[in-house]
Amino acid sequence: MGTILKDYSYTPAKIKRGYSGKSLYINLADLRIEQKEITEFMKEKFTGGKGFDLWYLWHAITPETRWDSPENEIVMSVGPLGGITQYSGTGKTLLCAISPLTGIPIDSNVGGYFGPLLKFSGWDAFEIQGKADREILIFIDGNNGRIQIEDAAEYPEDAHLLAEELTKKYSENEDDMVNVSVACTGSGAKYGYMGMINFSFYDPRRKVCRFKQAARGGLGTILHDKKVKALVVKYRGVKPNLNDAADISTINKVGVKYHKEMHDLDQKQNKMRQIGTANTVMIMSQYDLLPTRNFQTGGDPETIKISPKVFIEEWLTQGLHDGCWYGCTMSCAKCADHFLLTTGPYAGQRVTVDGPEYECAAGLGANLGVFDPQAILEENFYCDTYGIDLISFATCTAFIMECYQRGQITQEQMGGLDLRFGNSQAVLELLHQMSRGEGFGRLAGLGIRKLKQIFVEQFGADPKLLQDIGMEVKGLEYSEYAHKESLAQQGGFAMATKGPQHDEAWLIFMDMVNKQIPTFEDKANALYYFPMFRTWFGLVGLCKLPWNDIVPADNHKTDSPAKVPEHVQNYVDLFNAVTGKNIDKEELIIQSERVYQFQRVFNVRMGKGERKDDYAPYRSLGPVTREEYLSRQELYDKQLREFQQLDPEAMGLDEKIAATRRYREDQYEQLMDAVYRRRGWTNNGIPTPERLKAIGMDLPELLEVIEPKL
Amino acid sequence: MIKVNTEESPWRPGMTVRALLDEKLFTFRHIIVRINGEFVSEEDFEKQTIQDGDDVLVLHLMAGG
Amino acid sequence: MKVLTHKQELCTGCLACELACSRAYFKTDDPNYSSIRIVENNRTYRARKCTQCGECINMCTANAIYRDRNGVVRIDKKKCVGCLGCVGFCTELVMFYADDLEVPFKCIACDICTKACPEGALEVLVSRVKEN
Question: Is A252 at the interface with chain C, CB within 8 A?
């Protein structure tokens, strides 16, 4: 037990219609703790969750603020629907901060207990500003209205040990452990910019702490920089209506209906309860969409070795509840129990591995040329306990591997690591080096944007090639979907506000396979609707998966099956039932758009919100190399004929590659024009005052930023 | 010739929905098929034949990430 | 394992069982608070009540459902968070809930309705079925 540095008492606010009405502010420099009011203005303009986070962050910083400036804040908030128990996926918390990778706000979502327990402890949002002078932990006791800041030097660094120790420390007995949630990074966040934050919850059946992650953007790096070892929240007494819902009857009815749908249909649809998000691995491979060897191709015959079937039959415990918050019957957070580690500091121990999620199997698997399920699970475990964003690590390591494959960097320059595609042992060793802060591990976590610069300046690599194959936009690495043939998805990634994360839009099948959005206007409409719709989840505390990873039996008969209208109606009903408000589907989109446009202007304010920042590396748009062109030659030759009236027979390979590139880059420019128009932005990507006014966001702060750019 | 998801596609007499899906490698389980706007339910995929000139939609309800 | 059984051929649909149950546990005559529900079909009467199958045990999101020493499936009120997952998942649709209750409810083979039935159509049997 470390020295208590601060002890603060408060009266936990009572929740009214989904909001406690109070937010918590802690400044780590002087350990100052304050309470702030959640105003009606905030609720109206920002709704909650990410909206509150961005509002607080805007006012905490200046355009000169860097990720490691003391005034940078980590803000977190769960939103008004967060913590209801009756529907699936109601524990999602959003975190925001200025990202080490991008220099603009990152928004990162995490499932689990922390956000709901924080709200029940009286806090709609929580700001952490400044830097402590020593490693500390912050404990929030929501039952007793107490916040303690404690010297945390003696506690372990790695998440699976730290969470276990702190969960036990703050529990009165085993039954009490479900009432504690720990947020922490790990030893891998010391160097580099892709540290993430783990959020724990106790699994009473397995008797271990499980983790979800606020992974993207480097929040763990910031947490470490601020010397916060852990955040702990405790609240005992979760009940069905702690949110003081206006209409519990509707919530119950909608919840039971959804649970029944899950019971009747999941097995026939995506089998989320058996395999979770990794169910898509085989499908993606079959449709040539699984990112393989740094997004060079869309699959590999060896994918069968990491198919859902393999994980279900050989690795993932079946039949137990695996939801990351109460009431989630989608129950998709699968895990491998009693998994024997063979490398690193915990070699020889059996652990519970939270995964693999799709991003893990695709990213740490196919995209690194690794098709060994055991290696993937071990990579997953160490990314988690070391506090490293698995997606950024995967995409960045894939980049490093291709640079090595193409002779742009040498084994010597990587400190002897033989990081060729498929060498999972080298990948694991790299992770251990990141944890120890040794060798190439000190560089590998810096991210693709920084590494491109280092490889060119220090190792003499080819800047054009690296620019083409380094899969990052705005400094954030791409998530794990091969999308070379989907113009809509190219836009969905590169024009996404935080960087190329797929949470804004996932249009690959709609675009490429179903061909439902053939024109620029169709794509622009999709790139308006889906980001706006999907943003909403992060305002109110919801997980996106229950929206469309299962659909009602008659969904295909509706006008727009891709929108899953009955589930959207569920969400409208739930929002109104909790808050007592009376929104409809249109108002839901406007709520989202307010925050979406705010975040875009925030980017403008921080210097990365213009057209120049929305371009993709060419690997995202088309074939960079000869092998890539040849791997889809029939398709690309056909497109030369159909779209450009060129004769592929009369052209050399390099000529065809160049012609394809010209065409695709021009297509992308046209897409940007259409999307910007649809989103109410200027041709330079700046939100217009007219659009802001139309949605009630013509706030002086925003107008001041955009006016000079119009 | 038929149309499959708005693109021209070769047709053979006696082509069933199942045969078309197999040919196109549309292996995804959660598929909605409409021929000239009419639904074909999954149990009819083996029986239902496609006629020359038909407009076939094969909608994959892929949630994605 | 104890389980409530119902003989259709003896049942007259008088609903005395529903009344006895809702009165005993919730002090009300409202059949929506009974753990046994009589369903009429062309003047024959079927009883819907928990079969103690236990499917809800592993899926409970709060780990609140367990078998007691009689093999009867019970909800631990201290752990239950009222998510109603069990209500939606029950294949027989015999886990019930009400909006003013924090926890769902079900038949626990307590013998109250068997004593209330004037026709002797209800009986709690002890089966030797293997439990999960």
Answer: yes
CATH topology (fold) of A266-477: 1.10.569
Which chain C residue lies closest to A240 (C-alpha atoms)?
C82
Nearest by CB to residue C99, choosing from A252, A259, A326, is A252
Is A207 touching C (CB cutoff 8 A)? no
A249 touches C: beta carbon within 8 Å: yes
**Residues A95 and A217: beta-carbon distance below 8 Å:** no
The residue of chain A nearest to residue B56, with distances taken between CA atoms, is A514
CATH code matching the domain that covers A487-550+583-709, chosen among 3.40.50.620, 1.10.599.10, 1.10.10.1100, 1.10.3720.10? 1.10.599.10
What's A4-234's CATH class? alpha beta
Quote the tokens at residue B35: 């021929």
Residue with tokens 């694991």: A428
- Put simply, the answer to whether C82 touches A329 (Cβ < 8 Å) is no
Chains C and B make contact, 3+ CB pairs within 8 Å:
no
> pLDDT digits over A277-287, tens only?
998 999 999 99
- Whether omega before A80 lies within 30 degrees of 0, making that bond cis, reads no
**Residue A219 and residue A95 in contact, taking contact as beta carbons nearer than 8 Å:** yes
Burial A342-379 (b: 16+ CB within 10 A, else e): ebbebeeeebbbbbbbbbbbbbbbbbbbbbebebbbbb
Q: Are C104 and C75 in contact (CB under 8 A)?
A: yes
Kindly state the tokens that stand for A180.
């504690």
Residue C19's domain spans which residues?
A: 2-121
Q: What ipTM, to 2 d.p.?
A: 0.97
Using the structure block, give the residue that is written with the tokens 């763990």. Answer: A220
Q: Do chains C and A touch (3 or more CB pairs under 8 A)?
A: yes
Is the predicted pLDDT of residue A480 greater than 70, yes or no? yes
Nearest by CB: A514 against B5, B27, B29: B5
> B16 to chain A, minimum CA–CA distance in Å?
19
What's the confidence (pLDDT) of residue C129? Answer: 64
Residue C12's CATH number: 3.30.70.20
Tell me: pLDDT of A368 over 80.
yes
A621/A618 Cα distance (integer angstroms)? 5
Query: Any CB–CB contact under 8 A between A508 and chain B?
Result: yes
Using 50, 70 and 90 to split pLDDT, how confident is the model at C127?
confident
Q: Which residues of B touch A (CB under 8 A)?
A: 5-7, 25-30, 32, 39, 57-65
Q: pLDDT tens across C66-75, in order? A: 999 999 999 9
Question: Smallest CA–CA separation between A509 and chain B, in Å?
Answer: 7
Better pLDDT: A282 or A499: A499
Q: What is the pLDDT of residues A558-579, one digit of tens each?
A: 988 889 999 999 999 999 999 9
Chain C contact for A236 (CB, 8 A cutoff): no
State the total domains in chain C: 1
CB A363 within 8 A of CB A451: no
Instruction: In whole angstroms, give the CA distance from residue A343 to residue A177.
Output: 30
Q: Does domain B2-60 bear CATH number 3.10.20.30? A: yes
- Range 231-270 of A in CB contact (< 8 A) with B: 269-270
> What token pair was written down for C8?
């259709």
- A363 neighbors A332 (Cβ within 8 angstroms): no
> What is the CB-side half-sphere exposure of residue C118 using CA atoms within 13 A?
6
A327 and C84 in contact by Cβ < 8 A? yes
How close does chain A come to B51, measured CA to CA in Å?
20
Domain boundaries along the sequence of chain A: 4-234, 266-477, 487-550+583-709
Stated pTM of the model: 0.96
Mutate to test the interface with B, among A303, A515, A558, A642 (most CBs of B within 10 A): A515
pLDDT digits (tens, 9 = 90+) for A143-167: 999 999 999 999 999 999 999 999 9
Q: Indicate the residue of B39, B57, B65 with minimum beta-carbon distance to A502.
A: B65
